[in-house]
# Entry
Amino acid sequence: MDAIILQLLNGLDKGGAYALIALGLTLVFGTLGVVNFAHGALFMLGAFCAVSIQSLLTISKQVKDESITFFDAYKEQPYLEIWWGDTGTAIIDWAVPLSIFLAIPIMLLIGVAMERGLIRHFYKRPHAEQILVTFGLAIVIQEIVKSFFGANPIPTPSPEIVAGSANIGLLLGLGESVVYPWWRLVYLLFSGIVIFAVFAFLQFTTFGMVVRAGMQDRETVGLLGINVERRFTVVFGIAAVVAGLAGVMYAPILPPDYHMGMDFLVLSFVVVVVGGMGSLGGAVSAGFLLGILQSFASMTEVKSIIPGIDQIIIYLVAVVILLTRPRGLMGRKGVMED
Amino acid sequence: MSDDKKTSELSRRGFIKVSAAAMAAASSPMFFTKGAWAANEFRNNPGDASSVKFGFNVPQTGAYADEGADELRAYQLAVKHINGEGDGGMLNTMKPLSLKGNGILGKKLEYVTGDTQTKSDAARASAKRMIEKDGVVMITGGSSSGVAVAVQGLCQEMGVVFMAGLTHSNDTTGKDKRRYGFRHFFNAYMSGAALGPVLEKEMGKERRAYHLTADYTWGWTQEESIKNTTEALGWETVAAVRTPVGAGDFSQYITPVLNSGADVLILNHYGKDMINSLTQAVQFGLRDKQVNGKNFEIIVPLFSRLMAQGAGDNIKGILGSTNWHWSLQDDGSKAFVKSFWQEYGFPPSQAAQTCYVQALLYADAVERAGTFYPPEVIKTLEGHTFDGMGNGPTEYRAADHQCFKDVLVVRGNENPSSQFDLLKVEQIVPRSQVEYDPAIFGGDLGPYEV
Amino acid sequence: MSIPAIRNDWAVMAIFTVAVLTAPLWLAPIGANYPDLLQKFAIFGIFAIGFNILFGLTGYLSFGHAVFLGVGSYTAVWSFKLLTMNVLPAVVFGTLMGGVFAVLIGYVSLRRSGIYFSILTLAFAQMSYNLAYSVLTPITNGETGLQITMNDARILDGPVGDGLPSTTLFGLEMSGYSGFYFCATMLIIAFFISLRIFRSPFGLKLKAIKSNQTRMKYTGFNTRPYLLVAFVISGMFAGLAGSLMAITDPLAGAERMQWTASGEVVLMTILGGTGTLIGPLLGVGIIKYFENIFSALNEAGLHEFFAFMPDWLENIVVAVSSEFVGEGWHLTLGVLFMLVVIFLPGGVMEGIRRTTAVVRNLSKGPEKKAAESVGKE
# Structure
């Protein structure tokens, strides 16, 4: 029982990340009609926002290290600590949550620049070309990040106060053994909030209404004299912000490296397609569904019945769903079928 | 002619009269058949050329790109030192030493590089290019056992010596060993044997271990080696769970550990997988846990400083083993660290050290053999004992081409004095303790002449 | 096909054959004339030609084609292990096994179209890769890759002598240039088959499916059998390519089946020019050249190359260009993809077409219309 609750939490957590990435991907696809292979790179850039801000905050003074004698070695002490003492230490400790505020404008800027500079010229182009050009862009972004930060993952710890685990077993009266890391609970909550915010934005604002209408029938919306172009730019910016936020918050769970976007890319496409191309609700529910299934498939009990199931479960589910529900869980007819 | 090759190499005219090594490669006969060897002509024979080339096959893209970059730095340093430039590095401490600081057999050493991408196919393609196009006499490098085994097999077929870089699987010098392949790095068996006594001292004889193992060949051999060691101590193995390579999020494999009754977690992961699984295991509070009245412990049998950097604070206090560490105080290590530091401004990794040493060892063997003829070079390396290269007295065992030397047991430094000071050498385990019978892993070296 | 005026298939074949067989000569100036790279050109050429039969003609974008390549390789190596080192059985079984897998995967995946088809093929390929890397290690030898060993059965060959046996074609060793000429022969055959398909009524039907499948269906035409045949043919091409990889280098690794490998052939095809006969081959040439030659350049080499410049300029040029070679070759590839797609949506073939059109306009003027049609076929 405890094991099942823990795996459910794992699944929700993973699902939160999948859902956030898939949400932006399907938003871009549904409104702009663009298959964006650089979406994973946006997720990665988000994580590197956290890395950059952490390294900005920890710009250090080099102090000669006397303990090493046979060549010159230096210790590092961040200026913030030198200037402000404990306050400085606390600021550094909170680098990741602080990055959120900076990541929003940065990612919005990157998203808008990407749409204005490149994506907008590809609305009318075939999907194959969109894939190739965004894939090329993803590689370029990756390589630039690599040349700045190297190929190895960079540790970006969460604040000390949420570094440990919560004994939710005791809180819920389930026994002592159900412990779960605080940060993962924060992530789960955070992904819920972001998903809710995106839906609320689309549901309750005029802007959102136009976007939703655009997802249903782009041509008619254009005929109504609404400037679709500008709205597309904003939509792309929002998608970039959502992916970026997912990345920022994921950094303490998975130390970021330049390749993490590619690792998530294929998976998030599977999530989008299982959910149904162009369906936001589908993307979110498919994200959580696949996350949970993946967690349960990894249990030793399950693996002893079907060896290797944890390696293929996501793809297996994708195949089954696409064969039984032709357009994914909540897809609409005629999307991406030609 | 095979009997006089020792003396005749320099004066003997090659079959193809060439003025430069590069030309030799470009114009080598179209159907280079094995029969040609009978006349003491061999692939990429530098002949009368004034220079000779090494092929550095390292990962430049992908997850191990940083290690590859460090390996390349070490190789470039080795080339300098062999050619008599710079401060000479380990040439000042290496014993015995035949190199004279004027290249190899008087020929200037040059090099070409290639990208393994940490994929067997790409690594072999890149090695083939260096052999077929650039005409290298030796291939070295790599940061994964799959690549090492694949390239080593290729080098055997092509008749070019391969000096493996970072590869830790037992298979490289075990069931997949090759006459043309040599490994200086230690292996999973040695990690287990070295860790055993330390684990016993630190954690006692009654422990329950839980393995998380990367689901591929290297992970399996390490799991087996560590299991053998710990079970011999009297530990119980609760479970050994295989995890997909590159899983990213390991939470679904870590949560079952919480309730398994295990009090030790052994992470048979390397690279990104190790960083992620360790970071997440710590987040799940495993290190603060008390099980069976004992402190819960995590062990990472194969450590590397570059990886430790990625894991940040999570590495503190965690036990593991490593091939070499820059803080060692012997003359060889000091000389190497000094010249590496002066050149690049930071200390070398264990991958850099093993690669540097491999390049020097090959060059020295050629110098001693007096010829580039691979079978002679191989015979010179087999059973060679040397010292002053950072690992104490070392032997290249003839039976499996594995180096036998001391192994370091290290612990994540609780109180690092600099960003490089992440691992503390806990104990230097003597060679005698990690030695084993080559027969246990099987395999067959194959012939000298191919 | 760079000379669009050629209409006669036999003339095309003759030019193609000569071009392929003399490749070691005319590739020499750019340093691409060593056996391994030539073999790779030919092998991936077959792979891309086969992929183009599916994607170029029907528009069905398979994202899991590498699985057939991997299956072909594994089958070929098993043929070396169990039967004989002769390459013919390996080619036959590798191709057939590619076909068998294509029937299975194609039958299921072709029930859907568009991106759903792409994701289905991707899912099958990733499942195959993950299993081959881990659980199926007894068959695939996992990460290390399946290799031939001294004590394999090889029931047709009898005991081996000293050392590992090599792959042979009735005694002729299949490494080096002989290996290339064997692959080149296969490439020419593959190209011929592809040419015939492009020109046949069957090819025409496939093109009709691409342009408007719904209309085809309304006319009472069942498209699926045609699609399946195209899928299987292209799977067999991939299987053939896979077996050739094992022939020139008897090792089969799981990463050949990974999605990045499938993606590579997609990129090659689009980069060269989808739906054109020769385009995919150009794409193969470009990407493989970059992978093998650009990745090998290092700073020392660049200094040599730019040595004619004054020192200060040389240093700047080397510093900038070194970002794009060696470990930066991925960056060059990424930039190249973007440039080609942005400015030449039809791939390199479109570039050639435009150039020839300009040249023609300059020289002849009115007769330009004739130039349009051939390349696009």
Observations:
- Chain A has a mean pLDDT of 86.
- The first strand of chain A starts at residue 60 and ends at 64.
- Chain A touches chain B through 53 residues (CB under 8 Å).
- Residues 2-32 of chain A form the longest helix (31 residues).
